[in-house]
């Protein structure tokens, strides 16, 4: 845990590197088509640290949308409903498709919202998000199964650590929430098939000690491995280039 936290200080260096890179100013990336892009923060975080990404999206031709969350912690159903209410307010009268970008736990919320939006969700981009763990829980890959491959056993162990940590955080910060036994629609929404036309991309760091790469790999998605920290994925210059390419459909 100490090693994980200490390595995250390098995220500040990734932000400095981004500010000095031409990509941050829109150079060398395709222009956007004006669609809305909602950007969702990770566990315990809010929209503040995502400001550089939102401004970059605006600069290259998209309309970024804040999550409006004070902190991404507690009941996922209530959080996702709040985000959807903000989306409806921003997009009133606009029937065009929209894109979702979720960092870490924000990717789990984005996955459920994308399922509810159906064909209106053009892109789902996950940054260091354990959505792959959620998918494997659905199909039941057991971490210790003698029939599982070595890769699946490693993925299962990583999945369990990520899910356990998320559940402990929820229990501490929102003891009134009985997720996942409460019967709310969030677990089903987070696992429901996305619309056929929704492009799914999972970008993760091979060096991430917080959400292991094995928990981020998602069947049927474009899986992209980069270097850097977990927190710094939202400042990573390689990530920005991939996001611009994916949103432009290239």
N- to C-terminal distance: 38 Å
Main beta sheet strand tally, sense and closure: 6 strands, parallel
CA-atom Rg in angstroms: 17 Å
Average predicted local confidence, pLDDT: 86
Q: What is the count of β-strands?
A: 6
Q: Please give the share of residues in helix.
A: 40-55%
The count of helical stretches stands at 9
Low-confidence stretches: 138-151
Strand order of the largest sheet: 2-1-3-4-5-6
Please state roughly what percent of the residues sit in beta strands, choosing from under 5%, 5-15%, 15-25%, 25-35%, 35-45% or over 45%.
5-15%
**Morphology:** globular
> Could you give the order of the helices and strands?
HHEHEHEHEHHHEEH
The structure class reads alpha/beta
Note down, in words, how this protein is organized:
By secondary structure, the chain is α/β, with parallel strands linked by helices. Helix content is 41%, strand content 13%. The protein has a six-stranded parallel β-sheet, with helices on both faces. Helix 4 crosses helix 5.
């Amino acid at each position: 845990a100490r090693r994980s936290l200490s390595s995250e200080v390098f995220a500040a260096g990734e932000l400095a590197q981004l500010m000095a890179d031409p990509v941050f100013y829109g150079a060398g990336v395709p222009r956007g088509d004006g669609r809305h892009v909602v950007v969702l923060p990770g566990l315990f975080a809010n929209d503040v640290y995502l400001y550089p990404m939102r401004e970059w999206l605006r600069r290259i031709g998209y309309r970024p949308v804040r999550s409006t969350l004070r902190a991404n912690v507690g009941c996922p159903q209530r959080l996702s409903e709040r985000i959807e209410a903000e989306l409806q307010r921003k997009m009133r009268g606009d029937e065009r498709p929209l894109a979702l970008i979720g960092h870490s736990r924000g990717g789990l919320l984005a996955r459920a919202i994308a399922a509810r939006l159906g064909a209106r969700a053009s892109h789902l981009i996950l940054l260091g998000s354990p959505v792959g763990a959620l998918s494997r829980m659905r199909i039941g890959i057991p971490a210790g199964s003698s029939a599982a491959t070595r890769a699946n056993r490693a993925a299962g162990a990583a999945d369990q650590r990520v899910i356990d940590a998320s559940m402990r955080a929820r229990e501490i910060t929102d003891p009134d929430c009985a997720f996942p036994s409460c019967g709310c629609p969030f677990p089903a929404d987070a696992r429901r098939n996305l619309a056929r036309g929704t492009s799914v991309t999972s970008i993760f760091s091979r060096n991430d000690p917080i959400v292991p790469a094995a928990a981020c790999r998602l069947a049927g998605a474009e899986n992209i491995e980069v270097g850097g920290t977990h927190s710094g994925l939202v400042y990573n210059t390689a990530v920005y280039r991939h996001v611009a390419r994916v949103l432009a459909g290239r």
